[in-house]
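Entry — protein

Goal — fold tokens:
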Amino acid sequence: FTKGQGSIGTQGCVSYMFDQKGQIIIGKEELEDEKGEMDADELMMIALDAGAEDIKSSEDGFEIITDPAAYDDVEKALADNNIEVAMSEITMVPDTMAELSGEDAEKVQKMLDALDDCDDVQDVYTNADLPEDDEE
């Protein structure tokens, strides 16, 4: 942390900034039917009827956010409707994002990469809104 110009707080000192939520990611290709079309409205109805809190659409697919208590019900409803899930987990979701750019974004990204490479670190949650790296 010192190398990354960060500091360690006490356990749970920033937990108020995050909520535990179920997160289910569905790629757009998973929603295509025989005709190559996708029905986002049908996905929304299935997820919301099963207890999902929110559905966010992006160019890559959909993110379904659930309360942890409704997580299994939403997963089951998707499976019952033959909707393939790309990623599914219960995670910590930030309440608000902190937009970073320039040198600050580079420092935070470098620290996140170092934490990710450390075998002793199981999970890292951040509210840093880092710019997308277009080099990939």
The CA atoms of residues 20 and 96 lie 14 Å apart.
